[in-house]
Amino acid sequence: MTEVQLQEFKLEPDSELRFEVESKNEKVVLEVKSGYAELFGTELVKAKPYEFHTGAKVAVFTWHGCTVELRGKTEVSYVAKETPMVVYLNVHAALEQQRVAAEQESTRGPVTMVVGPGDVGKSTLTRILLNYAVRMGRRPIYVDLDVGQGHISVPGTIGALLVERPASIEEGFSQQAPLVYHFGHSSPGENLELYNTIVGRLAEVIAERCENNKKASTSGVIINTCGWIKGDGYKVLSHAAQAFEVDVILVLDNERLYNELKRDMPKFVKVVYLPKSGGVVERSSTQRAEARDARIREYFYGKRTPYYPHSFDVKFNDLKIYKVGAPSLPASCMPLGMRAADALTKVVQYGSGHGPTDADDPVPAAAAAA
Ligand code: ADP
Q: Which residues form a coiled coil (predicted)?
């Protein structure tokens, strides 16, 4: 459906304007005319134009009421009165109490993990909670374990960021000095052993850094995860929960997962069920793949601030290409004392034209990933 070019919306307190930009090369400009509004936890500046491009799915929420103007062609745009924002705010308040306690007792702040199936708003909730924390003067650590979309660096990696200011409306969280581990696939299922190894490594490094940064330590960690929650996906989540020693797990919109985690997690881990927002948009696998491509492009070419990458020639003979994960062998063919799973984190060099061969001096996978 095509909407008119200029639209004005009056939002009552506790409601949100949702809109999507679909058409190719389309641009929609948003401006708050009066009142206060926020976008996934970042406060919008009055009378400042914000641009949204193809693929954007946006919610402008207001606690106090506001008037908003949209310029450009939106696919849909409507005002919703039913949102779970009060529930999310209560979660933030509970985390904030734990941060205050951590500050007083000089202990670690809450480590929170957001889980749920695909397209329930996990990344959005993570962003909201981080934004609220940083707006309270905290310095939380943002961890993204979602290799499928990858909001830190590019898809196929996992990473962490120290969040020092709210996410920019158009560009998300500042990506200065992120800690990133390469995985190389868009789903953990492609190499579970490697995924668990790098998740464990990331958790260790964060724990070490927190020891030297009291402010970050008391502010806690918020972890976004993949939407894969069944079978091995569940094991991956449990492993991550253990590796990061999480205190709180927020389960979005899946009662089965909630009950399984309640049953399996130690008693001190609080498992909380949360409703998803009716505004979260489901994406097809093509749209996900497109979003992945766009993210990789953005990494090299920039989004708002264009980068100018340049190419230079390297002789093919000078290149050494390594791959993590050797073909798995049956246990009977393995050298004594080696597990089949070890092969999955082994670094192998691609020989010239003969496919992968063993590296002369294999690098331990964890060191290679770092
Ligand atoms: P997940 O991380 O669970 O896959 P996301 O948080 O990425 O889900 O949300 C999916 C899409 O829905 C995103 O494009 C996001 O911008 C959009 N979205 C999330 N919440 C809302 C909302 N309340 N209104 C409109 N769109 C939303």
A: none
